[in-house]
Amino acid sequence: MAYHDKDLRGRGEESLVRSHDRAPAPGAKIPEAAAPASPDVPAAKPKTGRAKRLVLLAVLAVILGVGGYEGSYWWKTGRFMVSTDDAYVQADITILSAKVSGYVASLAVGQNQSVKAGDLIATIDPGDYGLARQSAMDKLATQRSAIARIGRQIEAERASVAKAEAQIVAAQADAQQAASDFARQQQLAKSDYASKATFESAQAARDRANANVKIAQAALLAAQADVEVLAAQQVEAERVAAELQTALAKADRDLSFTEIRAPVDGIVGNKAVEVGTYVQPGTRLAAIVPLASVHVDANFKETQLAAVKPGQVVHLQVDAYPNHDIRGVIESVAPASGSVFSLLPPENATGNFTKIVQRVPVRIAVGGGVAQQNLLRPGMSVVVDVDTRTSAGDKTASVR
């Protein structure tokens, strides 16, 4: 027993010496000594294979659940959907251009301002066009005065015609009397009851009366011809007046073009002029975007068109509004692929040929309730999902 105690003391001293040899340098951090293991506490056991199996089973269950859900969705819905992300919001944008030349006198709207059809957008200096209109009015008034003057002349000539007709009647009466006098003097001259001088005077009176009848008839013809000439001049003057009326209408139209008004409801954008800018016919002033009539142009692959028909309901996912489910209806399918209408269509009959899947534009109408909220702007990117199970009877569009 003494030997055993001595041996323990020796081992203790040796342990102290070794601990002293491993003492840390001054200032070094001394690690905490590990607590001696208690003989009564059992050591921790590693993870068992059972726990691993539970984890693998849980992961497998999640995978099967997600796969089953996705498979069920595809079988019930997904296989009937035709999708594309090559789609954009479009609108029939109206470009406002100047019809007449001049300086911009005023601008009634600003950028991104809402306008109604008929609202004033801008005015061009109307000075020259107002003078042109006044000149046309003056010329028309002068021509109308000329027409009135010719009308009075026609009335005067008709009076001359009546006078000539009366003169013919008087001349014929004088001629008849002269003829009777001549016949009577002629009978007297044969019986030597009248002198030769008296007979010759009666004969001269008869000839003069006949000549007066012819003069009166010629005067009547001249008066009638003058009436016809004046009537023709009146028609010509009226036609000139019609031309001047057309010139006045053109002047009025040119003057009206100095006021540029909105042809449709929408929002003004891309304003390109300011007050004082000189514009010419065709100069672009601004654009009006009718947001209430926007639509979506989706470019589907030609391999997707077999199931796409007008009237089918479409789900629209706009990138700008990810939380909105917008619905629309296929309105029409383009008669050709987009490449056919391009500036330089491909010529596949020459050179090396590489088949490329073409895309065909499809127009999608958006419900009026959606469009009137002004959520959609032309150019926005859209993801289109066509539900091929629907038909034309499901033309409902809504926003959720």
Automatic annotation (TrEMBL):
Classification via SUPFAM superfamilies: HlyD-like secretion proteins
A Pfam family name for this chain? BSH_RND
> What's any GO biological process attached to this entry?
transmembrane transport
Disordered: where is this region? 1-45
* Coiled coil spans: 147-181
Instruction: Return the Basic and acidic residues bias intervals.
Output: 1-23
Where does the Multidrug resistance protein MdtA-like barrel-sandwich hybrid domain start and stop, copy by copy? 97-289
Transmembrane regions listed in the UniProt entry: 54-75
Could you name the domain of life of the organism this protein comes from?
Bacteria
This protein's UniProt keywords: Coiled coil, Membrane, Transmembrane, Transmembrane helix
Q: Where is the composition biased (Low complexity)?
A: 31-45
Checking InterPro entries in the record gives: MdtA-like_BSH, MdtA-like_HH, MFP
Q: What is this protein called?
A: HlyD family secretion protein
Q: Which organism is it from?
A: Microvirga brassicacearum
